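Q: What would this chain look like folded?
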Amino acid sequence: MRVCVIGLGRMGRGIAVNLSRKGHEVLGFDIDPNAASKLSGSNVIVTSDMLKCPEGADYVIIAVPTGKESISVINSIAGVVKGTILDTTTMSLSELKDALKVVEERGLRYLSVRLEKGPREAERGELILYVGGDEELFKESSSILSQIGTPVYVGNHEQATALKLISNVILTANAVILAEVSAVIRKLGMDPDTVVKALSMGGSDSAQLRARLPWMLKGNYGESFSLRLARDVIDKALEYAQSMGIQLPITTLIDELLRIAEAAGYGSKDFSEIAEMLKVNERKL
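A: My prediction, written as structure tokens:
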């Protein structure tokens, strides 16, 4: 099977490597001229011409940072792509509407495929996929989706997109609480691994506790979901809720805290670096 991956950042690069390892012919494109060097040692073929990537591809996977960029990609490749587009971009509902307008006007085969988990799982083919769109097209694409991760058909495009935003609100709120209590845990002087093991056995267990609390306690952060991207997703969730007449006061406060951390220079690797800002504030007291 021939697959084109447009966007070779943390997630797109992992997906491309995973599918290449599984025997597919994978072509990739990214505006970053250094993208090819980051894929050295893999069988992914990186092209400098975006329009060459979708030619003859059975599937085109879009993995760009924002909905605005996704819409630009869809417009650009509409006259070339013959296969199915799997759009993994996290976008707002207004961006989704603009994307679907292009899809409908150009008669494209298109599924919304919103991703859960991070770059490590992308490279292992262990992502969770919230898929929205035509159910028959989903079934037809189940083979490739299952090689990317575990697909869950959730309904239409809007439902898949909204569910991703909701998921990000929950995980971000969870991680911010963990960042706050990490100061208390450090004062206790306990072994970080013991703390995580103990807490994960009780009612406070969560994916964020197991993945991000160790980073916070040890001050060693993996490259996963930058603070800039986290804020972008939170802003999209707030925009969507407001369009429905729903206020999210706690999420609004979290968004403001993330904004302060970003302005202070934290979060280039992962948004959980907000714990480092709290450490600085702790030392000032």
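The chain has a mean pLDDT of 94.
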